[in-house]
Structures are given as C-alpha cells and as structure tokens.
Queue: 2 jobs
Job 1
Amino acid sequence: MALEDTVVIPIDAETFQEKLGSSDPMAYMFLRVIAGRYRWALRRALDNQNINSSKTMMMGGMDTRYMRVRESAISRLRIEQDLQEAIEKDQFVVYYQPIVTMTTGVIAGFEALLRWNHPERGIIAPGEFVGVAEESGLIIPIGSWVIEKACEDLPRFQDVFNQNFLGQPELFMSVNVSPKQIDKLSKLDRLKAILDTHGTDPGNIKLEITEDLLVTSPELAVLALDKIKATGVELALDDFGTGYSSMSYLHRFPLDVLKIDRTFINAVNSEEKGLEIVQGIIGLARALRMQVVAEGVEDLETLNKIRHLDCDYLQGFFASKPWPLEAMLASLARHCRSRAKALAEQPMVG
Ligand code: G
Ligand code: MN
C-alpha cells in the first residue's frame, strides 16, 4: 500500500517494545490505539470468515484467503476513518420518501433515509456503510443526527401539507434506528431531549426497527422498546419477513406498524401464491392491531393487485423515489394541490 518506493526494515517485537517504551507518551498511546484498532478489525474479519489467524499463518503463511480478510479489515478501518470525517465535515444527508394512504392516494407521512454524500463517490446508500458504523459505534452519533434532522424538517412538510389538508391527521415522520441505538435511546431520556429541542409531537414520529433486534435478545428488547414507547413515539417493524422473528412472540413487543418487505410485495406478480401470502401477513398484523405498510410498490400492476387488500399505506418507487428535502417539498406541494382537487371533484357517494 506504499505510495512511493519503499525499503522495508524488519523490526523484532523486542526492539519495537524498547523503542515504544522510550517514546513520547502521547505518541505511545496513539500507536497503541491504532494497533489495537487494527487487531480488532482483523480479528472481526477473521471471525466472520471462521479463520483462525495463528493456525492459518503457521500452516501456509499468508495464504490468499488470509490476505483477502486482511484487505477487508483494512478497508473497514478506512471506511471507519472516512465515516468519522464525514461526521465532522457534515457529509451526511437525509432523503425523504413519501408513505401514501392506500384508499385516498394522499401522502400521510415520510420515511427519512440516510445517505452519505461522499466527496469522490457521490451519494452512497447506507447498505455500504451502516455495518461499519454499527460495529464501530459511530451509528450512535450518526443515528441521532438523522432523528434530529427528521424532527427539524418535519414542520416544513407539515406546513406545505396543511395548506391543502388542514384538519386531516398531521403528517408523520418515520426514522430507521439500528439495534445499538435502541439501547442508547431508551436510556437517559435521549429521545425525549431530541423531540423537545425541536418541539416535535412524539405522536408524529415512528421509529423503524428490524426483526434482528427482537430475535437477538427479546427480553432486553421488550424493556428498551417499552421505555421508548413511553415517550409517545410509535414503533414500526421494518422489512417484515426478511428476518427470523417468530410470529409466536411478535405480540410481546409494543409495535404499532408492520412494514411488509418489498420481496413479498414484488412476489404478488411473480409467485402463484404471492397475493395470498401478503394477505396472510396483513391478517397477522390486524390480529396484533398493527397498521400495515406495503413497501417497495414499484408499478401500477402491483398496486392494482394489493389495493383491495386491507392495507393502510403504500411506499415505493411507484408513488415516489426518495428525494432530498427541497425537491421533496416541491413535489409534496404539487401532490397536495392535485390530490385536493381530485378529491374535491369526486362525488361523495357512488
Ligand atoms: O430497509 P428499509 O425499508 O428502510 O429500506 C429502504 C430503502 O429501500 C431505501 O434505501 C430506498 O431507497 C429503497 N426503496 C424505496 N422504495 C423502493 C422501491 O420501490 N423499490 C426498491 N427496489 N427499493 C426501494
Ligand atoms: Mn425503513
């Protein structure tokens, strides 16, 4: 990885220790932290691949599999460093995607979606960096920032909406939270502090959690989620059907909304029993008194198939892609005008 011609001088552990011992204490601490971080990232990568490092080294030296793992550990560290810098340099942005009421076609709320506006690579979706953010703990400051930003922007959406639909339920804002964040948010009134700062009505906020939170440690999850619910926000179960949550204990969690993963929604076109399965999931949600969102509705054909099911909301490219704040506000204004007009022209009966 050297950028220039380099001479490698081997230093044995003893000499290294000796040099370290006599170095500036600050530089010593610095090196220890960096070395510790590297070992940690390498260990994690090896664990993930089920490779025992010392054994691999002894048997065949640095074999290619080990090298690959080492590369990936270094790349993780680099992403972590870049993420740290991204926080400092304000490189994160929130995109918004509407969630639409099935029966009226009117926007009911938005989902806030994190994006990283990378200086060289442009907009990056969370799939590429959330794993590293979670492992390194950076998800805590990043996640809090997303909630803050969503709370700050919600009144702007509500103002536009209320110009046409005053008296209707207020627009809500849905925010994704990772399992690590849940624990933090449930403590020290962290969430309440954020909501208070922005004067946000907790009833208009939905936190989206995933099934792995419920599966990994259900008892702790119930406690944490109960505390979070006590602030007045709602909880949505995201990507339902892709995790391993057992239907038999879903009722234990204080969940208000179930979001059916897009793989099930897309399957209504490609699988023979696709529609029945979606219907079954909706039946389950109803039995648990949860509202239902169909995720990933991409075309009219899909919408026409699911619109007669008992589903509250739809989300997906068919309604709108996620857009940055200003673009989404403009789109919301156009949407509100045209929906208000269409609804006014519709006869009340028949
Ligand atoms: O896990 P979660 O449901 O929060 O993921 C939302 C992601 O899905 C966002 O990154 C968003 O861009 C993407 N998305 C939203 N609507 C659609 C859609 O209709 N089709 C597909 N393929 N992806 C979508
Ligand atoms: Mn989501």
Note: Residues 97, 113, 125, 176, 238-239, 262, 295-296, 298, 316-317, 322 surround guanosine-5'-monophosphate (ligand 1) (CB under 6 Å).
Job 2
Amino acid sequence: MEHIAIIGAGAMGCLFAGLLAEAGRRVTLLTKRPEEAEHLRREGLRLEGLGGSRRVTVAATANPQDVQEADLVLLAVKAYDTQTAVQTVAAWLKEQAVVLTLQNGLGNVETVSAFVGAERTLGGVTAHGATRLGVGHVRHAGRGETVIGEARGGLTSRVEHLADLFTAAGIETRAVEDIRPVLWGKLLVNVGINALAAVLQWRNGQLIEHPATERVLEAAVTEAVQVAQAEGLSFTAAEAVAKVKSVCKATAQNLNSMLQDLQRGRQTEVDYLNGAIVAEGEKLGVPTPINWTLTQLVKALEP
Ligand code: KPL
C-alpha cells in the first residue's frame, strides 16, 4: 500500500489524507472541483484540534486518471456520490488496487463491489469526529476506533496490513472477519442520532437530556434493530439503544454530519440512513413509521 488515493476532500477525506501524509505515506487527494485541487496544491491541508494547528502538504488533483498508481483508494464522499465516484475511477485502477469505503450509510460496500468486484472491496467505519471549516481546513474534534474488513469476509493479510498502516499513522484501526455487523452497528448509531438532532438543530448530547427526544431516539433505533434482526443480524434493541445513548454522551458537543449538511444548504445522507431502514423494512415486511417520519422531515429541510 505504497500509494493511497483519497476520493473526496470533505472533513474525513482531508483528515485521513493529513494524518497519512504526516506519517510519511504518499497520498493523493482527488476532488471533483479543479479550483479546490488547485487550492490544496497551493496551500496544503490545514488541520487543527487534536494534534494542534499545522499545515500538511499533499498532492491534490481533479483528474481521475491520477489514481492510476494507487494501491489503495479510500472513498470519502457522501453516500449519494458513491456510484459516480467509484464509476469515475474504476477504469483507471490497476488490477491489484483495492477500494475501501468508510462512508456512513447502507449500500456503499455493495455499490463499490458492483464496479470493482467484491474481491477488491473493503468496508469499514470510523469514529473520528471531524468538521470541515473551509477548503482543506479541518478540525479534528474526536479520536475513535476505525474498523475495517473484506467485503467477502475473512481476515486477509492485506486487511491486517492496512489496519497496521493506519494505526501507525495515529488512526487506531482493527481488522475484523465480518464487517456486516460493524456497518449495521454504525448505521444504528446514525439512525438514532443524525435525523432527529438535524431536525431539531441540536447537538448530539441534547437528545438524551430530554425524555421526549430520548423516546423518539429509542423508537427509531428499536425499529432499525427489528429490520436488522429480519436481515439475520443478532442485535438487541436494549443493547443498541444503550450504545446510541453512549455515543450521544461521548460526542455531546458534536453537530452531527446531517445537521452540518443542512446548515451548509446541502443534500443529506438520510436516504442511506433512516431512509434505508424504511426501504429494507418494506422488503422484509417490518413497519418503520418513525424512520419514515424522520426521513420525510429531513427531506423537508433539504434544498
Ligand atoms: O457519525 C456521526 C455523524 O455525525 O455522522 C456521529 C457518530 C453521530 C457523530 O456526530
């Protein structure tokens, strides 16, 4: 994994690019906006928060052809851009290159697999908190574990190697055999927090300070657990709700990513979070009225 291409210069893409480049990795940041790539080449990245304020030099480009030499492509675009992003770079990738998605939401691993093959796809989640303050300018607000695994399952040496490489760059990472419960675990957290706090324009911690919002959070997560169970996953509502509340506490001051999207007048990932629970629930015959309502309310606030 000599050369890492990161697609998407949002908060997470810039944070990972900065940390990996600081650790001496060859990193290329790909953005679809030429003026953004130009700015990144000229000014570098500006990181602040954990690790202090500093500038980090990275290669940046808007030309998908520049991923040709990458051994690893890290997808850090919003879930609604996954297909376009992977489709754009797929033709340029060398045969041994692998693609890792650390994006929020359901369906990213499947979309990547459809274009590059499941044998070249890795999935995962990250609990780092990062906020984009401007072009290439990110506040690293919280450190958390990153978990990665093969789309096809099994613990391979390449996924273990990648976990070591990330960990050595200060991105503490664990490789697992089965990524599916991990992806669903993160989905349940996002389903409980993002839409509800986005509609109310609240910080994550406020959701568990009021009995009314606590009840809605519990109901949304319980529905999603019922869908997960119908999918064959072994979550329990009590454990999932406790986990979501512990994340509210741990990230109490965060404005979640969906709220940040709305505040910036952008589309959100709700279709891949609460909306995905509704869609899966429909397929499996599990009613999901709370997630449906949250999805519609977020859509009402989208541009
Ligand atoms: O993943 C997040 C997000 O904002 O999307 C949480 C965990 C809710 C932290 O804010």
Note: The domain at 181-301 is CATH 1.10.1040.10 (N-(1-d-carboxylethyl)-l-norvaline Dehydrogenase; domain 2).
